[in-house]
């Protein structure tokens, strides 16, 4: 499977319970890759508008673009 | 309102996009005397409160005038700073780490004209716009956080209490009679986004009640697992509750584990933590960051809770002023507040200040607590 | 004329200290008048509504803001903090009120053109309210709406050649003291190190891939004006190795009362005649100085470079010539396990462009922390969890007595297998030859 699909499939499989994940959750998907390689995969997905960031201000998470509850609640979608 | 485009094309976000350019280089806006004498300064002197002169090897002098700034500042105010900088300083100015503004000139008479100009400007309400001061063994400007002006987890306001405390110690912003510098800071909750844990006097907003749980909205507004994983003490867990006769997914909080950080509210708007009656301010004292004489140290809590008393926070300001006065009257020259308290012993600190020592002031949070208990028969009655 | 009555906030207009309430009111007035005829891109009365919602907080003693995590500019994971008002009908001007962090030049020197250009963007596209500056050091633009974020970013980058700062689990906007630009104590060019590292690590700053936030701060001397040791995960603090330079004639001038001690910092009170023995020699934390009435001597090997004597007699004493910095790692504010001060990792490093020696330490720490750090764990907490020895190991730094205040007081030493002759295997048969069961 292509690396990007691994990420997207993981997010889709979890979408019932949560839609945002810490960076470390993705490194676990690629046991043979270092964090910097995983970052490249995620960055590419962000630039392709597949993923988007979610920030608490102090931390940052990644999720599928448009997924989740709050953006709709605040009329940002 | 008609939308004015900057040139950005929302359908092609990457088109002509400029990223990763960082800040401007630090020397882009140096006044000429700073540029010329970079790395070649010989010594400095504080001529009067708020006025410094730095002398370079070349013999050049730069007079810097420091004025207190409100961290929350309008563009109108910034433009007035610009007008002053254009009029007196060739269009240059700088800001300090403690939200002060510094104007630099190379001539003593220009310095005096600038100083008098700055001191003459007032808001219609009567406060100074640009009070000169904040140097040496005095009380400099407070650093602070957002508070009720902009933050979602504050236990107090920031700009307001800072205004009140600075009003109360204003004479010492404009004087240098303290035994050593006194640095005051305020963080509006324990997360301390403006770290105040090493200040001579640190004011910290504290919540005293765990978050409310809005069962009606929890599952609609929040991804419950995110709120659960946000909790630093594992006090938050998912649960199912009965709400208006229906079973709904919601959240449970183990109340005695909650440290009131508000992280779960950040993740989940159905867990608000703000509480008018519960919230307030703790006072911490005796921290420092400088390595001068003694090593850097943390501030210690000496007042566990003061209620929020907007708009002027009278109890808070009175206590801060009182601590400052007792310190000024008793410490030796060069002793920071924490050095003084350690020399005389904290039991003497409480005796001299008359602050009440309560059980709240004994550390009970995890490992470090033990190291603060007294393992000795040496103490003062 | 203000839109909302603010009787509580009005009480913050009196008193000498600059009143932020007066300032926000003057901004509200300026926008109402709109002398330049701007077509404000967010509600013109948002400063009024900001005062209105703040007045409500003053009455109720509770905040009215909610966090919003999704807003940002495309491709960046930080630099924008989402804020919504929880009383949007009452205060529509601030219903959506997001913050943008703009990268400041190290040391915060500006010219008026830069500031005016920034004000012009913020006047048109934001609330006109700022923080100069935020706690980490950024210029903070306080309050705009989502459709303006990309427009502001475009104008900042295209017209002002300046970028956003950091927020979230990434490298935060680094900051330095004013360093050599106007300070004789500066042991290295803190502003340049700050600038170079900020440029070199733009990807780490904008695209979060750390377990949590990571801060650099650069103090050019041990006085620590930007609080690097207390506030940054990676603190570079200037120091030197050789003798403090002494001008004996100037020392005598201080002792004789010709020169003002402490550069005038204590002149607000009559502390009596300057007493060099009592105020300098006896205050020296390592007691490495002597004053015989005409000559001051310092035993360099005993000096801990606390700056006290230099601060007290700046015309007579100067920092040494063999200059560089100490690196301290792991400071943080109290949540969760209590505050941490930076712990000394590199006792001395030369700080010279292109700063490879410093960068090498940074990158080794990042590689380790990105692998081992738990979610929301600052590097100082990772150090506590996995040991200081581990940090030394991953950074290839030999342990030295400088690293501790005192050696351990328990003997529970975790020896490595290769440190023990024969490793962890035993010869049981030989043992039984010597001992019965």
UniProtKB/TrEMBL annotation, chain A:
Residue ranges annotated for the Dissimilatory sulphite reductase D domain, each copy included: 4-67
InterPro entries registered for this protein in UniProt: DsrD (IPR014793), WH-like_DNA-bd_sf (IPR036388), WH_DNA-bd_sf (IPR036390)
Gene3D superfamilies named in the record: Winged helix-like DNA-binding domain superfamily/Winged helix DNA-binding domain
Signal peptide start and end residues: none
Protein name as annotated: Dissimilatory sulfite reductase D
Source organism per UniProt: Candidatus Desulfovibrio kirbyi
UniProtKB/TrEMBL annotation, chain B:
Cellular component GO terms held in the UniProt record: sulfite reductase complex (NADPH)
Ranges where the 4Fe-4S ferredoxin-type domain occurs: 249-276
One example GO MF annotation: metal ion binding
Listed cofactors: siroheme; [4Fe-4S] cluster
GO BP of this protein: sulfate assimilation
Top-rank taxon: Bacteria
InterPro entries, sorted: 4Fe4S_Fe-S-bd, 4Fe4S_Fe_S_CS, DsrB, NiRdtase/SiRdtase_haem-b_fer, Nit/Sulf_reduc_fer-like_dom_sf, NO2/SO3_Rdtase_4Fe4S_dom, NO2/SO3_Rdtase_4Fe4S_prot, NO2/SO3_Rdtase_4Fe4S_sf
Keywords: 4Fe-4S, Iron, Iron-sulfur, Metal-binding, Oxidoreductase
Family annotation (NCBIfam families): dsrB
Name of this protein: Dissimilatory sulfite reductase subunit beta
Annotated source species: Candidatus Desulfovibrio kirbyi
Lineage: Bacteria, Pseudomonadati, Thermodesulfobacteriota, Desulfovibrionia, Desulfovibrionales
Gene that encodes it: dsrB
TrEMBL record, chain C:
Pfam families, A to Z: NIR_SIR (PF01077)
Gene Ontology cellular component annotations, sorted alphabetically: sulfite reductase complex (NADPH)
Keywords (A to Z) from UniProt: 4Fe-4S, Iron, Iron-sulfur, Metal-binding
Gene Ontology molecular functions: 4 iron, 4 sulfur cluster binding; dissimilatory sulfite reductase (NADH) activity; heme binding; metal ion binding; sulfite reductase (ferredoxin) activity; sulfite reductase activity
Superkingdom in the source lineage: Bacteria
Gene3D superfamilies: 3.30.70.20, 3.30.70.2500, 6.10.140.1420, Sulfite Reductase Hemoprotein, domain 1
Biological process annotations from GO: sulfate assimilation
Domain Nitrite/sulphite reductase 4Fe-4S: 167-396
Residue ranges of coiled coil: none
NCBIfam families in UniProt: dsrA
Name assigned to this protein: Dissimilatory sulfite reductase subunit alpha
Organism of origin: Candidatus Desulfovibrio kirbyi
């Amino acid at each position: 499977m292509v690396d990007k699909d691994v990420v997207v499939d993981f997010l889709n499989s979890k979408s019932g319970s949560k839609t945002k994940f810490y960076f470390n959750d993705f490194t676990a998907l690629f046991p043979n890759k270092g964090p910097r390689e995983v970052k490249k995969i995620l960055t590419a997905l962000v630039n392709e508008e597949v993923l988007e960031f979610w920030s608490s201000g102090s931390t940052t998470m990644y999720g599928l673009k448009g997924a989740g509850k709050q953006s709709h609640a605040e009329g940002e979608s | 309102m008609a939308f004015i485009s900057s040139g950005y094309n929302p359908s092609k976000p990457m088109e002509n996009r400029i990223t990763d350019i960082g800040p401007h280089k630090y020397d882009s806006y140096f006044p000429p005397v700073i540029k010329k004498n970079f790395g070649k300064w010989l010594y400095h002197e504080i001529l009067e409160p708020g006025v410094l002169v730095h002398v370079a090897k070349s013999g050049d002098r730069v007079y810097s005038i420091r004025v207190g700034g409100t961290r929350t500042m309008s563009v109108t105010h910034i433009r007035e700073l610009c007008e002053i900088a254009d009029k007196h300083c060739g269009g240059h100015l700088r800001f300090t780490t403690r939200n002060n503004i510094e104007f630099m000139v190379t001539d003593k008479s220009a310095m005096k004209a600038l100083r008098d100009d700055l001191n003459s400007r007032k808001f219609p309400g009567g406060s100074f716009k640009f009070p000169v001061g904040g140097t040496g063994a005095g009380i400099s400007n407070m650093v602070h956080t957002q508070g009720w002006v902009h933050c979602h987890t504050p236990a107090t306001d920031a700009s307001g209490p800072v205004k009140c405390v600075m009003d109360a110690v204003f004479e010492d912003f404009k004087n240098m009679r303290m035994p050593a510098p006194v640095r005051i800071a305020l963080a509006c909750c324990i997360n301390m986004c403006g770290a105040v844990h090493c200040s001579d006097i640190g004011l910290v907003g504290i919540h005293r009640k765990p978050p409310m749980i809005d069962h009606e909205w929890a599952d609609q507004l929040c991804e419950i697992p995110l709120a659960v994983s946000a909790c630093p003490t594992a006090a938050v867990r998912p649960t199912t509750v009965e709400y208006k006769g229906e079973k709904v997914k919601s959240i449970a909080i183990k109340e005695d584990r909650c440290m009131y950080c508000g992280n779960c509210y950040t993740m989940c708007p159905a867990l608000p933590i703000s509480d008018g009656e519960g919230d307030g301010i703790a006072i911490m004292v005796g921290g420092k960051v400088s390595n001068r004489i003694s090593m850097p140290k943390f501030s210690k809590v000496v007042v566990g809770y003061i209620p929020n008393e907007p708009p002027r926070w009278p109890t808070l300001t009175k206590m801060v002023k009182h601590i400052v006065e007792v310190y000024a009257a008793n410490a030796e020259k060069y002793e920071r507040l924490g050095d003084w308290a350690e020399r005389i012993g904290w039991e003497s600190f409480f005796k001299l200040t008359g602050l009440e020592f309560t059980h709240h002031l004994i550390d009970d949070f995890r490992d470090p607590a033990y190291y603060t208990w007294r393992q000795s028969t040496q103490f003062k009655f | 004329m203000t839109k909302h009555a603010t009787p509580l906030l009005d009480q913050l207009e009196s008193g000498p200290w600059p009143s932020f309430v007066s300032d926000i009111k003057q901004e509200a007035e300026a926008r109402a008048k709109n002398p330049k005829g701007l077509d404000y891109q967010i509600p013109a009365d948002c400063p009024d509504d900001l005062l209105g919602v703040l007045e409500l907080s003053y009455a109720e003693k509770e905040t009215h803001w909610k966090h919003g995590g999704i807003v940002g500019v495309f491709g960046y994971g930080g630099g924008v903090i989402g804020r919504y008002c929880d009383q949007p009908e009452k205060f529509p001007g601030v219903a959506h009120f997001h913050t943008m962090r703009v990268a400041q030049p190290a040391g915060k020197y500006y010219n008026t053109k830069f500031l005016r250009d920034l004000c012009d963007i913020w006047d048109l596209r934001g609330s006109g309210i700022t923080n100069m500056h935020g706690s980490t050091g950024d210029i903070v633009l306080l309050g705009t709406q989502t459709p303006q974020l990309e427009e502001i970013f475009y104008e900042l980058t295209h017209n002002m050649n300046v970028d956003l700062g950091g927020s979230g689990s990434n490298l935060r906007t680094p900051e330095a003291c004013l360093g050599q630009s106007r300070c004789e104590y500066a042991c290295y060019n803190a502003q340049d190190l700050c600038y170079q590292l900020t440029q070199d690590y733009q990807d780490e700053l904008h695209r979060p891939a750390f377990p949590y936030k990571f801060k650099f701060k650069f103090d050019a001397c041990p006085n620590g004006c930007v609080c690097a040791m207390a506030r940054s995960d990676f603190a570079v603090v200037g120091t030197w190795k050789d003798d403090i330079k002494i001008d004996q004639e100037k020392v005598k001038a201080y002792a004789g009362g010709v020169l003002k001690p402490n550069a005038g910092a204590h002149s607000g009170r009559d502390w009596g005649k300057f007493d060099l023995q009592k105020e300098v020699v006896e205050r020296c934390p390592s007691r490495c100085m002597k004053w015989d009435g005409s000559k001051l001597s310092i035993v360099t090997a005993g000096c801990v470079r606390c700056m006290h004597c230099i601060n007290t007699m700046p015309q007579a004493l100067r920092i040494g010539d063999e200059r560089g910095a100490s690196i301290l790692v792991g400071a943080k504010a109290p949540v969760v396990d209590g505050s941490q001060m930076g712990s000394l990792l590199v006792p001395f490093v030369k700080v010279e462009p292109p700063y490879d020696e410093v960068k090498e330490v940074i990158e080794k720490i990042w590689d380790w922390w990105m692998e081992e750090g738990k979610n929301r764990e600052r590097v100082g907490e990772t150090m506590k969890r996995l040991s200081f020895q581990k940090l030394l190991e991953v950074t290839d730094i030999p342990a030295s007595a400088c690293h501790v205040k005192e050696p351990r007081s328990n003997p529970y030493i975790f020896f490595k297998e290769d440190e023990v002759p024969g490793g962890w295997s035993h010869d049981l048969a030989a043992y039984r030859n010597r001992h019965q069961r």
